[in-house]
Amino acid sequence: YEAVFDRVVLPALERYRPELIIVPSGFDAGAYDPLGRQMMTSEGYRGLTRRLMRFANECCDGRLVMCHEGGYSAPTVPFLAHAVIETLAEVDVGLVDPFQAIFENLGQQELQPHQDTLVSQAEKLLEALPNH
């Protein structure tokens, strides 16, 4: 997710130069989500939110809307959503995600070669996007 954000999503937004960013902030990518299971953690969501906030501050006067739209693991979604909300509010209330330590130690968290190949192919598509 970090590689795609840094190499594809943010560069695409840079080319488009939106006046407002609206994110359907789903939590299906959470590690325990019964549908997605993409190994995302609360810290992963926190990091992506920070990236979007930095970009929104630079590009569109901080106009960033996040709306909850999915995620199906009742025990973990509240911690994932809390990480996003806390990051947006720029506060730390000290809530510890009890699942973070388990998830961050799962194997293959680093970008895998097949994933890097797909991200590289997506990067090439950016060349076709017009600059605004």
Task: Describe it.
- 17% of the residues are buried.
- This protein has helices spanning 2-16, 42-59, 77-89, 100-103, 113-125, and strands spanning 21-25, 64-68.
- The chain contains five helices and two strands.
- The mean pLDDT is 94.
- With 132 residues, the protein is mainly alpha-helical.
- Helix 2 links the parallel strand 1 (21-25) and strand 2.
- A two-stranded parallel ribbon has the order 1-2.
Could you name the ranges where pLDDT drops below 50 across 5 or more consecutive residues? none
Helix content: 40-55%
- Biggest sheet, spatial arrangement of strands: 1-2
Integer-rounded radius of gyration? 15 Å
Backbone shape: globular
C-alpha end-to-end distance: 25 Å
How many β strands by DSSP? Answer: 2
User: In DSSP terms, counting alpha (H) and pi (I) runs of 4 or more, how many helices?
Assistant: 5
User: Main β-sheet: number of strands, strand sense, barrel status?
Assistant: 2 strands, parallel
Strand residue content? 5-15%
Throw out a few tags for this protein.
two-stranded parallel ribbon; 8% strand; 132 residues; globular; mainly alpha
Summed up, what is this model?
The protein has 132 residues and is mostly helical. It is built from five helices and two strands. Helix content is 48%, strand content 8%.
Question: What are the SSEs and their pairings?
Answer:
Layout: H1 2-16, E1 21-25, H2 42-59, E2 64-68, H3 77-89, H4 100-103, H5 113-125
Parallel strand pairs: 1-2
Helix pairs in contact: 1-2, 1-5, 2-3
